[in-house]
């Protein structure tokens, strides 16, 4: 079981996808985008790899899952998804499902079995718009998806 992302401003949507992966698999590999790769990926500032990793570890400790999850750095859009023979399933958000389809196409070309794709619905904030790191950074919502005071 794999799941991957930037996990900037770790929020309720991230937590839901991580919990789903942990519910489905005994062991979960969490691919965390490196600082070098994220600079090419995102046109805005993102928390450092170390901060994002520590936030993931805090969450895993909170739900008592550190023994079942491993955080690894990923330096491209595909991580170990395109090369690992042991991985059988990938958990993605609706927003990143296309990436999982790309991973499977590469796997097939390489003679590997396609991964089972589990897509998790986007978690909506109070205003009905998906929770996102960008909206949190802009101060529109908090990490739980609640509107900041004065914006409701």
Give your account of this protein's structure.
The chain has one domain (2-137): 3-Layer(aba) Sandwich (Rossmann fold), CATH 3.40.50. With 152 residues, it is α/β, with parallel strands linked by helices. It has helices at 12-24, 35-41, 49-62, 97-109, 133-137; strands spanning 2-5, 28-33, 69-74, 89-93, 116-120. Strands 1-2-3 form a 3-stranded parallel beta sheet. It has a two-stranded parallel sheet with strand order 4-5. It is globular and about 55 Å long. The chain starts with a strand and ends in a 15-residue tail after the last helix.
Please give the structural blueprint.
Blueprint: E1 2-5, H1 12-24, E2 28-33, H2 35-41, H3 49-62, E3 69-74, E4 89-93, H4 97-109, E5 116-120, H5 133-137
Parallel strand pairs: 1-2, 2-3, 4-5
């Amino acid at each position: 079981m794999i799941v991957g992302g930037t996990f900037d401003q770790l929020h309720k949507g991230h937590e839901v996808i991580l919990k789903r992966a942990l519910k489905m698999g005994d062991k979960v590999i969490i691919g965390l985008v490196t600082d070098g790769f994220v600079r090419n990926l995102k046109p805005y500032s993102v928390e450092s790899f170390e901060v994002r990793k520590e936030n993931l570890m805090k969450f895993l400790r909170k739900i008592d899952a550190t023994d079942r999850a491993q955080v690894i750095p990923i330096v491209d859009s595909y991580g170990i998804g395109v090369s690992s023979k042991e991985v059988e399933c990938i958990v993605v958000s609706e927003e990143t499902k296309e990436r999982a389809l790309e991973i499977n196409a590469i796997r097939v070309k390489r003679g590997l079995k396609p991964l089972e794709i589990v897509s998790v619905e986007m978690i909506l904030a109070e205003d009905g718009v998906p929770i996102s790191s960008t909206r949190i950074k802009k101060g529109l919502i908090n990490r739980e998806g609640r509107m900041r005071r004065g914006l409701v």
